[in-house]
User: What shape does this take?
Amino acid sequence: MSQFREITIGNLLRETAGKYPDHDALIYPEFGIRQNYSEFLGNCEKVAKGFMALGVKRGDHVSAWATNVPEWVYMQFGLSMIGAVLVTVNTNYKSHELEYILQQSDSTTLVHIRDYRDTSYYDIVRQVVPELGNQAKGAINSEKLPYLKNVVLAGEGDAAPGMFLFNEVLSRGEAVSDADLKAREESLDVHDTINMQYTSGTTGFPKGVMLTHYNIVNNARMVGDVMGMTEKDRLLIQVPLFHCFGCVMSTLNSVYHGSTMVVLESFDPLKALQSIEKEQCTAINGVPTMFIAMLAHPDFEKYNMKSLRTGIMAGAPCPVETMNQVRTRMHCPEVVIAFGQTECSPVMTMTRRDDPVELRVSTVGRLLPDIEGKIVEPDSGEDLPVNTQGEIVTRSDCVMKGYYKMQDATEAAIDEEGWLHTGDLGIVDENGYFKVTGRIKDMIIRGGENVYPREIEEFLHAHEKVSDVHVVGVPDEKYGEQVLAAIQLRDGESATAEEFREYCNGKIARHKIPRYFEFVKEYPMTASGKVQKYKLRELFAAKYAS
Assistant: This one.
């Protein structure tokens, strides 16, 4: 019998706040924020009412382009109370990508921070929405973005032309009654889309993955159950909230289990170490490179890690030595590995806390309860026997509703029997442990970030000097893979790698900008005229390995 629960995210928060009203819910060391579940619920309700006052309706899309700031967490739960769909935007994106997502998602509202590090989100937004300067707040009329009506600036700072300040939104919400909010909540359905995250595939064009309350609440439940999460746990959240790793496996997982969220605005190894000690964190999530950076920090030995118990490593293969050091030097013996993708909310398999270390580094674990998975022959879809490589497929109530406005892509990903085709190659052994052996999709994983060659190729093709371009991943000791662009220039043209880097800067995310640019006269081809990317990879892998 299925354990799947039918509960909205808003009602889940109310349930937890009812059980543990005085228990620490949200701690932000960098912002001086410390709230119990009763206070956290109250702040989320204020956000819910604020966006209702802006005219945000059930089913409207609200894009969030921000680091892990407090407003992000309030929005995740507050918007869920009013049935608005939170569209998560990668913080590394630039103008080209932001405009695409706002267009494709039909977002009515954009919430963004002013700046972060050397990127001015404010300037980029004004570039993408030039009408902001001469139009009233809440009444944007953009030629390129016909659905967009509201732009909200999060954080401290002065008012900005055409934009609401986040505090203004909260003030407007005071006019919305508890009864109005309750009526909106009661109109919702657990199978409503509530979260939309953009991912790419072989087409290279980002696709909006539609996830429901039902999808992600239950995935968060299962993930936390495997970790052994309870109201006594305190989870350090240093992974980006715009990823499922952040907003499902971390925040939603914590709220489901009554645990405390200790949130960093972005990953910083020293702040992570300080927060673990000061807040007595019992759990920590991160990609392997985060754990490596913490272990390598010169002040590591100064901090007491003995409160740690468990955590999740995901996003890239975990080196054996790293796993051993996390278990011993970080005093985190129950750390586990998770595998999945956004389209399945996101976790499909996990190792277990009592699995031997060998299994935690050589496999991605066993299926979660109530989730099906198997290996099939990629072309025919026929089931394959154990220890035979094929495509990993999965089926469950955690599988997405589909890709937003992309029916063909949805049908290509989910077959008639409901199996989601992951595009990953792997095997499953006689004990049900899965291993990922490669990718059918031509995807590059750089430091835990997915990079899709076609998207970069499309972008570089627009350069006036480019005749053709093919992007591949080459092995890299630190990041796993680096991005390489093999460019054929137009006749008579010459160019430098620096020229192309400059062309990319500010337009596409840093992690997508190729580390290497190679200028080639021809590509290795098949007899039918297709470029043999694996040969390109081999050629340049050998070059950069030497």
Notes: The mean pLDDT is 93. The domain at 444-545 is CATH 3.30.300.30 (GMP Synthetase; Chain A, domain 3). DSSP finds 18 helices and 28 strands in the chain. The radius of gyration is 23 Å.
